[in-house]
Amino acid sequence: MTEKYTALYEEHKKLGASFTDFGGWQMPLKYSSELAEHHAVRKAAGLFDLSHMGEVWVTGPAAGAFLDYALVGKLSAIADGKAKYSLICNADGGIIDDLIVYRFGDEKYLVVPNAGNAPTVAAALAERAADFDVKVEDASAETSLIAVQGPKAEAILLKLTDEAQHALVTDLKYYAFNELTVAGHNVILARTGYTGEDGFELFVPNDGAASLWASVAEAGEEFGIIPCGLASRDSLRLEAGMPLYGNELSLERSPFDAGLGPVVALKSKEGDFVGRSALEASKAEGSKRKLVGLKGLGRRAGRGGYPVLKDGNVVGEVTSGQPSPTLGYPVALAYVDIEHAELGTALDVDLRGKAEPFEVIALPFYKRQK
């Protein structure tokens, strides 16, 4: 596979980033300390390059009806200027990807899939569009995405925005977006987030990415902003109880197994959509295993792939796990047999032959104070 690089790759090299492969992209893993980056997002602000994510435009008279058919949610019901979390499934009800859909109007939507799945999602959408009056355009290669996450994110954005447009920032609700000018660049500014903190995502053409990155870094200096890599992004999203494709979500899992049943519009959406019959059957049958949160009662953390035990018997598997920098104890997401998924259930995780005690607790592990 040919390695791919974002428009900000040279900026990351200058900052001394350690790189890792993610979905075929060379991405910053960390710049100095992943713990420092994690705490910066919780206490001040972090600056992320998310340009490996995909951007697929769906336009045309049948855009809403098409997305209702292609995805599991009722996307035609999104209000203009709002966003919705959704899934794209195959005919068997397996999850191809989770994604966010932004509505710009009756005939214009932006679909943002995950990095490694972006080409697959774009191809699936193009294939499913055959009978609809829509155009599917994959703009991933021309688009950069910069995220500013943390309690100081809004203050930083206001420094870079003309006073006449300040309300477009301050009035922006969660899962909504505006088009405005930030540091001289015309951007799509969204407030969705993946860290459990307040924050913004800025979509900008590649040729403006380096300049915008530098402007945000400079404006955020007084607030303690630092660049952050994928390592801290993963620990932040885990604390926030958010699933990661390839860990918690996959073709082998249904949305109901992952606790994403409310995302599937079986009742509110009339007509057929890809995977509907399989998902109806899956819901009726019920899940044999359920995604739960686990709190470690000791000091050692469970990792992805480690067995979950009850009285020495394997009853599940960890999908993501590590020590929580914010909470001070190990946390994990795991699929466990449904009869052991209730809150308060005592379980063990097999840490390379040693049983370590964990307890099923409510998600998210961490919730910010508003």
Structure in words:
- The protein is α+β, with helices and mostly antiparallel strands and 370 residues long.
- Helices cover 22% and strands 32% of the residues.
- The chain folds into 3 domains: 9-52 and 142-239, 2-Layer Sandwich (Gyrase A, domain 2); 56-125 and 254-285, Alpha-Beta Plaits; 288-361, Beta Barrel (Elongation Factor Tu (Ef-tu), domain 3).
- It has helices at residues 9-14, 34-43, 63-70, 118-128, 153-159, 166-170, 206-220, 230-239, 276-285, and strands at 18-22, 25-30, 46-49, 56-59, 83-89, 95-105, 108-112, 135-138, 143-149, 177-182, 185-190, 199-205, 226-227, 289-296, 307-310, 313-323, 330-337, 346-351, 354-361.
- Helix 2 packs across helix 8.
- The longest helix is centred in the middle third of the chain and has 15 residues, at 206-220.
- It is globular and about 60 Å long.
- The N and C termini lie far apart (44 Å).
